[in-house]
């Protein structure tokens, strides 16, 4: 693993990000609007929480019964898992959901309802991924313990020749892994690397919270339906369906924005990267389906990954407007603005790239 500190070359076109910041600030000033969320976020949150909790309640009350009906409810819950993660929890843990700190904090723990620990997520996503995007050994989003190759800088293995075939299976167990062992694994790693202090956490406090979250999650999501008469095997099957749906959606959204044949995977030399942080984000991040407003709404604006990585302190509802500013400014400074026309095109590019990485394995 590389050093946990990498320096960026701030002499690399520093005027680009300075100009971009000025233009973005001017946009908000002229519009007279906040960089945080608004009533749109509240409406969206109600929808996403309803998508997750309503099917569960319908099962518990017996309003929906029968094998196929119950499995359909778990399927909808899987979409809700992705919806909450993409459109609610994500902004809240970046501190952009609301200007009201109490509401923002409340929404930031929505990951707990899905069985995950939000503080671990902040370290993985806010601290590591957003700082060291696509840098092997630092960005955990491209580090999968040698079972899949996401970067040309990672070690080659013969098994990777088949990764384009088994990758969807791994993606479908993403959230299942999360609610079982990932939080414990991450906690041990972050404690060893002294990263818990970034969230003002101690190992003991974090471990207690994780154990409590897991116990309550499984008691409610699995034990309660069984106690109320839903067959145990149907609960288990539905539980796996929910996580397969949620995990697949989440994985495809994030991997299709970073692991492509158009994005770069920097290799630091002497703990230094050749580009500035902002330009590094431009080179390692790609947008997709910018004209698809329903998709943009459901994905929490994360098809605008370029804007999100440049301005993680701004709520996603503003990204469509900011994308025009970012693209025009990037063109002025001769910086590529990476994007795929459609979500399907981004997914296709991602899997082609996985195939290329795999067939080159030795």
Beta-strand percent range:
under 5%
Binned, the helix content reads 55-70%
Domains (count): 1
End-to-end Cα distance, whole Å, is 21 Å
Description of the molecule:
The protein is an all-alpha fold and about 350 residues long. The chain has one domain. About 60% of the residues lie in helices and about 0% in strands. The chain has 15 helices and 4 strands. The strands form 2 sheets. The chain has a two-stranded parallel sheet with strand order 1-2. The chain is globular. About 40% of the residues are buried. The mean pLDDT is about 95.
Précis, in short:
With 362 residues, the protein is an all-alpha fold.
SSE blueprint:
Elements: E1 7-8, H1 14-31, H2 39-60, H3 67-93, H4 101-108, H5 110-113, H6 118-129, H7 163-172, H8 174-192, H9 203-227, H10 232-258, E2 272-273, H11 277-284, E3 287-288, H12 293-298, H13 305-310, H14 319-332, E4 339-340, H15 343-359
Parallel strand pairs: 1-2, 3-4
Properties at a glance:
two-stranded parallel ribbon; globular; mainly alpha; 15 helices; 362 residues; single chain
